[in-house]
């Protein structure tokens, strides 16, 4: 068996792993990147980029059908499913190719191919032919889609977020299991491309929203295009012809629906099975996950770090990359000393690229906060720019502490990806509602929608003082 030595071993060549490897190298460590395949990062291959490519096609079809609102008549909108998916894959493959080009530029001795497993706290087996001795390691093995038990045994009738973008044509009908960010993005895109979509979720919220006003708005908005079944459990499934019949139980009783395909979009658990983490001396908790510090990413005092989707904190790409950098730098430092930094987490920022879009920023909504928080509200229904563009739906909620210091927000509305960023920067800088309100807001822009929410917080903080 070939033996290789390094300072830092990075397991996984996705967003977090690539960032960790680069950070370790920049810190002067001899780092080795291990990839079991298929590679290309989750974002480029099966996540952010292909889902957005599907979404923009759906939005184009929707905009063409809705152009009559402006006196523009589009007599007929035709959806060419193979062409939609062909462009999606061509652009997706370009993004993946760019990732691979970056990896191929690495010296050969810094890359290993094969599935890694820990033999002890300083040794990895990579495949059957290589043993890698390390001083510190980073686990960045990503995640994989889960398949609900009722869908087992249905073969290609069931799609996952890893396979949905490989279908040759759009299905006539689709059931989406899961109303989180990925599920609702794909569900709306498919519906706008002419697919009859039913969405099932055991919860009562969509797109990760939690404020009651906004969850109701989301159900109303998305329910106009999608057959929603919230608070509903899919209890069984069986093949029927070339499709699937789903059986479900919900608030209105039991029922069933036949669809051509089913998309399982209810989550992506971390890829930690098979790593033999216990052999590295790690204390494992529920589902075989190691205990680790959420700031330094160090596992239970060992010389092992865990970053990206693998740690179950569900970071989106920008956070996964930052986690990789933190883990890589710390692993490099730990390879020669016992030092590890623990930077503060960034202000939380999550978005869903539906139309209207959604965003969550900073501290989550807390129904039990009571008088400790002050909330400001704004609606996009009558907001000037939103009405000009006939995108006047949804609203936002911003919360602050009793001093007016901004804590967090949720929103659903037009272009909220930009509003979300502005609020994230304001929260990161410790601004109060009053200070953020005293900024230049050009007219007419969607950013003016902040004004009423910030004014409400300012008034209520003053009244409470």
UniProtKB/TrEMBL annotation:
Name assigned to this protein: Dihydrolipoyl dehydrogenase
Intrachain disulfide bonds: 43-48
MF-aspect GO terms: dihydrolipoyl dehydrogenase (NADH) activity; flavin adenine dinucleotide binding; NAD(P)H dehydrogenase (quinone) activity
FAD/NAD(P)-binding domain: residues covered: 7-324
Family according to the record: Belongs to the class-I pyridine nucleotide-disulfide oxidoreductase family.
Binding site for NAD(+): 178-185, 267
Cited InterPro entries: FAD/NAD-bd_sf (IPR036188), FAD/NAD-binding_dom (IPR023753), FAD/NAD-linked_Rdtase_dimer_sf (IPR016156), Pyr_nuc-diS_OxRdtase (IPR001100), Pyr_nucl-diS_OxRdtase_dimer (IPR004099)
Lineage: Bacteria, Pseudomonadati, Pseudomonadota, Alphaproteobacteria, Hyphomicrobiales
Pfam families on file: Pyr_redox_2, Pyr_redox_dim
Enzyme class name: oxidoreductase
UniProt keywords, alphabetically: FAD, Flavoprotein, NAD, Nucleotide-binding, Oxidoreductase
SUPFAM superfamilies registered for this protein in UniProt: FAD/NAD(P)-binding domain, FAD/NAD-linked reductases, dimerisation (C-terminal) domain
The protein's Enzyme Commission number: 1.8.1.4
Binding positions for FAD per the UniProt entry: 52, 141-143, 309
Classification via NCBIfam families: PRK06292.1-1
Domain Pyridine nucleotide-disulphide oxidoreductase dimerisation per the UniProt entry, residue ranges: 351-453
Swiss-Prot/TrEMBL cofactor(s): FAD
Source organism of this protein record: Methylobacterium planeticum
Cofactor annotation remark: Binds 1 FAD per subunit.
Active site annotation, chain numbering: 443 (proton acceptor)
């Amino acid at each position: 068996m070939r033996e290789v030595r390094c300072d830092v071993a990075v397991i996984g060549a996705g967003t977090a792993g690539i960032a960790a490897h680069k950070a370790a190298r920049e810190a002067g460590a001899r780092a080795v990147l291990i990839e079991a395949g298929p590679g290309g990062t989750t974002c480029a291959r099966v996540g952010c980029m292909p889902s957005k490519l599907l979404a923009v096609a759906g939005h184009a079809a929707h905009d063409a059908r809705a152009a009559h609102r402006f006196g523009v008549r589009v007599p007929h909108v035709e959806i060419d499913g193979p062409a939609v998916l062909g462009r999606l894959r061509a652009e997706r493959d370009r993004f993946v190719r760019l990732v691979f080009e970056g990896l191929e530029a690495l010296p050969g001795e810094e890359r290993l191919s094969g599935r890694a497993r820990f033999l002890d706290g300083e040794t990895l087996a990579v495949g059957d032919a290589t043993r890698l001795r390390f001083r510190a390691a980073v686990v960045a093995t990503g995640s994989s889609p889960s398949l609900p038990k009722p869908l087992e045994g249905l073969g290609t009738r069931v799609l996952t977020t890893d396979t949905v973008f490989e279908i040759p044509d759009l299905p006539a009908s689709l059931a989406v299991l899961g109303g989180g960010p990925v599920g609702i993005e794909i569900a709306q895109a498919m519906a706008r491309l002419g697919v009859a979509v039913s969405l099932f979720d055991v919860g009562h919220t969509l797109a990760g929203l939690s404020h009651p006003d906004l969850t109701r708005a989301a159900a109303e908005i998305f329910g106009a295009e999608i057959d929603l079944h919230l608070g509903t459990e899919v209890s069984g499934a069986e093949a029927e012809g070339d499709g699937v019949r789903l059986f479900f139980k919900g608030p209105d009783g039991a029922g069933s629906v036949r669809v051509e395909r089913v998309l399982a979009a209810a989550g992506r658990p971390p890829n930690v099975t098979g790593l033999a983490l216990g052999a590295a001396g790690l204390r494992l908790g529920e589902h075989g996950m190691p205990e680790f510090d959420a700031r330094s990413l160090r596992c239970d005092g060992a010389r092992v770090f865990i970053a990206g989707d693998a740690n179950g904190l569900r970071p989106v790409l920008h956070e996964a990359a930052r986690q990789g950098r933190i883990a890589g730098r710390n692993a490099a430092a730990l390879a020669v000393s016992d030092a590890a930094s623990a930077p503060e987490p960034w202000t939380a920022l999550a978005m869903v690229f539906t139309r209207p879009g959604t965003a969550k920023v900073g501290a989550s909504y807390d129904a039990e906060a009571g008088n400790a928080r002050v909330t400001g509200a704004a609606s996009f229904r009558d907001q000037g720019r939103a009405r000009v563009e006939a995108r006047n739906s949804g609203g936002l909620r911003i919360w602050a502490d009793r001093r007016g210091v901004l804590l967090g927000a949720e929103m659903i509305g037009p272009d909220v990806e930009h509003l979300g960023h502005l609020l994230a920067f304001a929260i990161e800088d410790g601004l109060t509602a009053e200070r953020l309100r005293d900024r230049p807001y050009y007219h007419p822009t969607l950013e003016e929608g902040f004004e009423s929410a910030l004014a409400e917080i300012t008034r209520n903080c003053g009244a409470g003082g």
